Amino acid sequence: MFVEVFSDEGKKVTFYTIRHEDADMSETEDFFRRVHSSDYKEDVFKLSMLLANEIGDRYGAHEKYFNREERAATALPPKYYKPFKGEKTISFSYSPLRLYSYKVSDSIVVLFNGGLKSTNGSAQDDPNIRIHFRQAYLYSEKIQRAINEGMIDIQGKYMVGFDGSKKIKI
Amino acid sequence: MVNDFFKQVLKETPKDIEVFVSKYEAITMRIYEILKAKNLSQKDLAEKLNKRPSEISKWLNDGHNLTLKTLSKLEAVLEEEIINIPLKQSFVGKNNDVNTFSGVTTFFVYKNDKKESIKYQECNFIEMKPKLSKRIA
């Protein structure tokens, strides 16, 4: 699988994503395509604005945003992100939208996949998102290991492979 | 570079949602930073306001409940401004469009001790260009 740029237009953060070999689209594009056609379109718009404008361009990967720690990865939106409250929710008061991510630095965030949480229990028991929760953990571990072993070099708001490539095989 | 589908989602997002997320983030980030700068925890703030910590947590994490009354209480106890509203509408005039001027539309010039009133509409706007002075050998 590869780590590739998802969006780097913001001044503060470059968002990366994961793409499997032979896959038509990245994991994060798959997430957005699925949730975009759900009943939670307004939440999707808000999450997109939070990523592109606030985290990406204004505040960076501030600790305030990464408070929903689920093993090595973090799920966005942040906990208690109440702008979502009031919209259609399934069985709990906050948004069911979960996009897994891994904050590499204040300027680099890797976005994975996710979905709409359908139960009130933990992510690992939820039928809709448990697979993405597990994958996020594995991807985060792989990325961190590659950084530790020098396979990925961090250069400002970018990650570069040991051979200088921007699309990094992990 | 931005993923094409994500770009499409951003483009589709209604302006009011964009403004809402931006304002919500600006306010909560401001409170977060004030607490950090003053080395205050949510528990400290609760004590200052004589409230339960759970209530403070609700205020700080609940954009919808952040009323003007709550913000005023927070500003009072933190002794810092959280929201700053500009008093005047800022004005940006286009130098080649005289219709953008409102309010005072004339000014006076003195020519040989004679006061002359000139309307902005009668003025020709000339672009100022830097002029290099001739170097004397």
| Structural class based on helices, strands and sheet pairing of chain B | mainly alpha
Helical region count of chain A? 3
Oligomer: heterodimer
Q: How much of the residues of chain B is beta strand, in percent?
A: 5-15%
How much helix is in the residues of chain A? 25-40%
Any idea what the radius of gyration of chain A is? 15 Å
Series of secondary-structure elements of chain B, N-terminal to C-terminal? HHHHHEE
User: What is the arithmetic mean of pLDDT of chain A?
Assistant: 84
How would you describe this structure to a colleague?
- The complex is a heterodimer of chains A (170) and B (137).
- By secondary structure, chain A is α+β, with helices and mostly antiparallel strands.
- In chain A, 28% of the residues lie in helices and 27% in strands.
- Chain A is built from three helices and nine strands.
- Chain A has helices spanning 27-36, 41-59, 130-148; strands at 2-7, 14-19, 69-70, 73-76, 97-105, 108-116, 152-155, 158-161, 168-169.
- A seven-stranded mixed β-sheet of chain A has the order 3-4-5-6-2-1-9.
- In chain A, a hairpin with a 2-residue loop joins strand 7 and strand 8 (158-161).
- With 137 residues, chain B is mainly alpha-helical.
- A two-stranded antiparallel sheet of chain B has the order 1-2.
- In chain B, a hairpin with a 2-residue loop joins strand 1 and strand 2.
- In chain B, helix 3 (42-49) crosses helix 4.
- The longest helix of chain B is centred in the first third of the chain and has 23 residues, at 15-37.
- The mean pLDDT of chain B is 79.
- At the A-B interface, strand 1, helix 1 and helix 2 of A face helix 1 and helix 2 of B.
Topology overview:
The complex is a heterodimer of chains A (170) and B (137).
Chain A: E1 2-7, E2 14-19, H1 27-36, H2 41-59, E3 69-70, E4 73-76, E5 97-105, E6 108-116, H3 130-148, E7 152-155, E8 158-161, E9 168-169
Parallel strand pairs in A: 2-6
Antiparallel strand pairs in A: 1-2, 1-9, 3-4, 4-5, 5-6, 7-8
Chain B: H1 4-12, H2 15-37, H3 42-49, H4 53-61, H5 68-78, E1 106-111, E2 114-119
Antiparallel strand pairs in B: 1-2
Helix pairs in contact in B: 3-4
